Amino acid sequence: MAEETMPAHPRQKPVFRFAPSPNGPLHLGHALSAFLNFDLARENEGRFLLRIEDIDRTRCTPEFEAAIYEDLEWLGLEWEKPVRRQSEHFSLYQSALQSLIDQGLAYPAFMTRGEVKAKVAAFEAKGRTWPRDPDGSPHYPCDDRRMSRDEREARQKGGKTFAWRLDMQAAVARLKQPLSWTETGSGSQQEIAADPAAWGDVVLSRSDAPSSYHLSVVVDDAVQEITHVVRGRDLYHATAVHRLLQELLGLPAPIYHHHRLILGTDGRKLSKSEGSTGLSVLRHEGRTPADIRRMVGL
């Protein structure tokens, strides 16, 4: 099928990765992504890596991480060792964040979720529409971006909790040419125009998480020399943010391949809370790895 074909990367031996978060059990959607990465690596005589994305230390647990290894081994997948764990590389993400701060492209954002929600609600109560990102979340207000340096420093010294956000307007203005990415998810190679501004001022780091998904994933892909990012269609639009960060940080751009999603009975993408589609549940019911391949359409 179309999603199983992939051109070789021109720079080096192809490198693929499967990067789950250990915050719940793997399900059929994860199986599809893992199978595709593993199969494409073999077909292209490339490498297959496993990365544990455990930035969120409050939700990620050693038990879920161990379950990931067990499920993937049961599926018959083999990966290079040692496995890269994001929690062991916080200083690297901090360095990338500092680079953006030094470039004047990141600012401290002090508004709480409740304050943002209230501001958006008051705005829309007047019949106006607040801008939203491709996932439907409202853009972060511009108040903190426009705050004076003195006020920012005073709030920080006063212990006010804040997150670091990307100044999207300034970041996009820094680009020297239109931004795009190479996409093969439709079965042929296409160049897709990227619109990172559609996401507003995205989070780069929070007080409870030293790096956002956006920042850590582009840093990890560069460090691991990933040439092909094969992941679900739900991350298609987020690629625009990743391409922007790659440009700002001087990182290479992989080829992207966004595959179809496995949907639940409600028509939505699977959740880790849906036990009936969990790989460990299916294994204990007597399903085989071959059954799982058939269930995900491979």
Class from secondary-structure proportions: alpha/beta
Low-pLDDT windows of residues: 4-9
Q: How would you spell out the order of helices and strands?
A: EHEHEHEHHEHEEEHEHEHH
Give the strand order of the largest sheet, numbering strands 1, 2, ... along the chain. Answer: 1-2-3
Provide the residue-averaged pLDDT.
93
Major β-sheet, in short? 3 strands, parallel
Helix content: 25-40%
Q: How many helical stretches?
A: 10
Distance between the first and last residues' Cα: 9 Å
Shape annotation:
globular
Strand content bin: 5-15%
Computed CA radius of gyration, to the nearest angstrom:
20 Å
Count every beta strand, where a strand is a DSSP E run of 2 or more residues.
Answer: 10
TL;DR?
With 298 residues, this protein is an alpha/beta fold. It has helices at residues 28-43, 62-74, 90-102, 113-124, 149-157, 168-173, 213-223, 239-249, 279-284, 289-295; strands at residues 15-18, 47-52, 84-85, 106-109, 163-166, 180-183, 190-193, 203-205, 228-232, 255-259.
Explain this structure to me?
- The protein is of the alpha/beta class.
- 35% of the residues lie in helices and 14% in strands.
- The chain has ten helices and ten strands.
- It has a three-stranded parallel β-sheet. A three-stranded antiparallel β-sheet has the order 4-5-8.
- Strand 9, helix 8 and strand 10 (255-259) form a beta-alpha-beta unit.
